[in-house]
Structure formats: structure tokens, C-alpha cells
Amino acid sequence: MTKIKTSLRRNIVKAGLSIATVAGLSTFGLVSIANADKYPSKPIELVIHAKYGGGTDTTARMVSIRTRRNLKTDISIVAKRGGSGAKAQNYVLSKPADGYTIMALTQSHLYTMARGKSKMKIDDIVGVARAMDDPTFVAVSGKGKFKTLEDLVAASKKAPLNWGVAQIGGTEHIGLAQFAKEAGIKFKVVPFGSGAQMVQALMAGKIDATLPNVSEAANQVADGSFRALAVMAEERLKDYPNVPSTFEKGIKAKCSTTRGYAVLASTPQPIIDQISKAMVKAMKHDVFASYLAGAGLTVESSVAGTKIWDKHLKAEYKVAASALQELGLVK
Hints:
- By secondary structure, the chain is of the alpha/beta class.
- It has helices at 2-38, 55-71, 86-93, 107-114, 149-158, 171-183, 195-203, 214-223, 269-283, 286-294, 299-302, 306-326, and strands at residues 44-48, 75-79, 101-106, 125-135, 137-141, 161-165, 187-191, 209-210, 226-231, 256-264, 304-305.
- The protein has a 6-stranded mixed sheet with strand order 2-1-3-10-4-11, sandwiched between helices. A 3-stranded parallel sheet has the order 7-6-8.
- The protein starts with a helix and ends in a 5-residue tail after the last helix.
- Residues 1-32 have low confidence and may be disordered.
């Protein structure tokens, strides 16, 4: 009889624990939904990894102008500089996954993650909105001997040419590595420290070719100082109908400089969707559209919501991680 009572008591305790567990899960779910319904109920931090006044900061402020109106709350720009995004990433990881901390994201963040320079992994975040997608030209001097992409590739197969990049392991370097792999060429890389210096080096004839963004080289292409042999994309650009894409030339390598925004992946989906909707709406407004136009970009080609942007950045991370490995830059 005692054994029966003990067994019965154990079953009752187990049943009680199971009910409590289910209740706890249900309560957690209800709390998440409730928080999403009330979001946002306080100011939001938008974390950048660069200095105030730079491109990342300026873009974030332009995005915030209308986003704060759409979300009906204040947005403050917070700079956490250091480690090519590592300090910003670790700061975001220390915050709750509640949508009140948004991280500005550039390729620098992806390279830092791929090289294991921060605690953040690519699966720790989800992209909520893309603000800029600035394609890359394969550019040479307008006065030089290379008239077509075929000319450049043929010369590069005879001997490595000097290609200018901003930084070793940066966007141009990785784009160049992909281009060289697909085209079957070799190259010599010459780092200059910045995109502006890289462009100036081509103008001065110090290098044979480089990979500037459309926004960086628009003026030089327009006045004939540079010749854009191709755009590293799947299709031609609307504003440059005479510049072929690398893909149509059979070189399946693409490269662009992107800026976008992300939150922690465990953020409730309704909040992710709310942020994405608010940001995309803000970036389609004339205020941000005019800002993009000033850089030679368009809303149609740059702005994207969470589904497109998250898929884009995860694919870009995969390409970058592979390229960095092949370049011997990942330990």
C-alpha cells in the first residue's frame, strides 16, 4: 500500500512539473507577443562601428530621420569603435534581444566574424533592412591600352597586373580574388588604405586596374578619366547600359559595398518585421531617396526588407569566409 501511495505521489509531482513547464512556456510566448504589441515603448539604440561623421554614421542618421517617425520613438546613434566592428558586435551581444538595439552592418562586420575577431557569429544576427547596395566597377585608366574586359583578362594571363585595393582582406581584395578565380588570372594586390586613395592611384597611373564602387568612380567614368570595363554584377546597371556585367562575360563574380541593419536573431519575429517595415518605408521616402541619388544609387536597387537582406548578407558572408580562407587570412 505504501508503494502504491509513493508511486501515486511521484506521478502527481511529475504531472505538476509538466503543467508548470507548459504554463511557463505559454507565459513566455504570451510575454513575447505582449512585448511585440507594445513595441517600441522606449528609445532605440542604433549602434555603429565607425566614427561620427563618416559614411556609416551619415547613412544611419539619414535612415533614422523617418524611421523614428514610423516607429513613434526616438533613435540614438551610438558609436562603439574598435576591431573593425568587433567592439560594436560584442556590445550588441550584451544587450537583450528585444529590438531596442539595432546594429549598423557593413562588410567589415562580416570579415571580422569570419576571421574570429569577435564573439559574434553570423547566425547570431538577422538582417532587418538593407540601405545601400553600391556595385563595383572593374576600372582602368581612360587613356590606357585596355579597351575591353577581354583585353584586361588576356594581359593578366600573360603576367600579373597591379590592382589597387583599399585594404588587404577588404571588400575590393575579396572581390578581386573572386574575379581572378573565375577569370583564371593572377594578380598583384596593392593596398592604399582607403577607397579614395585607391581611386587617386589609378588616376596617377600607379596601378593597372582597380575595383571602385559606382559612387566612387562615377565622376571619373563620366569625364573619361576611367574606363569601366565591367560592373561586377549579374546584370547591367540601368544608368550604365553600355557597361557589361561580369556575369554576361562568363565571369561569375560579383562585388558591391553594402550597408544595412541587423538585430539579434532571437528577437521576436513580430518585432523584426515591425523594424523592417518601418525602415524600408523610411528609406523609400524622398529624404533618403535623395541621399541615395547623391551617391548615384537608387531606392529600387539598394533598399530591401528583412527577407531579401538577411539572405543577401548570409550569402555574402559565405563567399567572404571562403575567400579569406583561400587568401590565407583566416587562421
